[in-house]
Amino acid sequence: MTTTTTLGTASPLTVSALGLGCMGMSDFYGTRDEAEATRTIHRALDLGVTFLDTADMYGPFTNERLVGAALASAPGGRDAVQLATKFGNERTPDGGFVGVNGRPEYVRSACDASLQRLGVDVIDLYYQHRVDFTVPIEETVGAMKELVEAGKVRHLGLSEASADTIRRAHAVHPVTAVQTEYSLFTRDLEDTVWPVLAELGIGLVPYSPLGRGLLTGAIAGAGDLSADDSRRSGRFPRFEGEALDANLVLVSRVQELAARLGRTPGQLALAWVLARSGRDGVGVAPIPGTKRVRYLEENVGALDVSLSEDDLAALEAAVPREAVAGARYGDMSTIDG
């Protein structure tokens, strides 16, 4: 498989075919180990995984500092990576959530703060993390466009945006990529968002391409998650009760197919997402998150998996869209639908 992917056509950005989501290194998924996280980032660069994804809200604020420090100590440093971060989910230093903020003045101040924490002069891909329904998207993207003109940002992105929002944003300034949840477990975007990406020449950056870890087969029940893991908090209904039981049945089918092909279930699930890249002209670069070197190395193995059309069909038959139980978030109110 190719080692790079180009996101977007009007404002193209070439990134590693597989990226690295850094959120879990600082927030949401249990215990943190900054030394291991740093080793993971350095190992990613060694393996050619140079598309790094963070956000100001992760930590909050600490993940950008972690990523920046890791880059500062890595061979090649800043020039070796395509660096993506996000604004819009406003949090307080103690971790509280203020709300979604897309006001132009906030866009500018958030960018300056991210640049400082990351220790860089320019951000390769700057996303609006969630759409602010109280601010016209044209105003938010207008402020983001000013950041490009000022040389602080190279390319613009949106996260969890609807087809209509994407169209309106793209009319103000070319959108390079849309980030949203996409995996065998979450295929909603295929109905309305994917056609717009194909029409406008916008790339896709899937987060949680492993179904928040479910598709790796490493989670056999809620008890496998630490007490401080947000997947046990009620925030993710797919990890609760009967929904979890139903979803684990689907995972077992992926495990059977993976065993037949001599791969791990996570590699097979990632290979399915990677196989989407180029269809209808849409570049796809998934960003599976991990905070450990061994899981990173397993994920990179997905790049060597070649799935036939029969394999892809078998995976989709094993995990039918309608069979996945539970909403992807308990509170979908901030998702632009």
Automatic annotation (TrEMBL):
EC number(s) reported in the record: 1.1.1.-
Keywords per UniProt: Oxidoreductase
Stored SUPFAM superfamilies: NAD(P)-linked oxidoreductase
PANTHER family given in the database record: AFLATOXIN B1 ALDEHYDE REDUCTASE, ALDO-KETO REDUCTASE YAKC [NADP(+)]
Signal peptide: none
Highest taxon, organism lineage: Bacteria
Entries under Pfam families matching the protein: Aldo_ket_red
Gene Ontology molecular function terms on file: oxidoreductase activity
Domain NADP-dependent oxidoreductase intervals: 18-318
Protein name (database record): Aldo/keto reductase
